[in-house]
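Question (not urgent): is this output format expected?
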Amino acid sequence: MSEPDGGDNDDFELVLDPKVQESIGRSLKAHYDDIVNAPVPDKFLVLLAQLEATEQRAAGASSDECK
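Got this back:
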């Protein structure tokens, strides 16, 4: 089955108004900055601490086995 020929759209390029593009860019940067500066939730900190403790125990166990 062949695809219908919708014309030659290879040369078509959508260009946003520079003011619109600038506004979108400012909004995205503001949202990104908010996310980056947000505190890490306590649940994640607990999970990270558990993971680190597990990794340290595993590293200690493997170094004990090498002796």
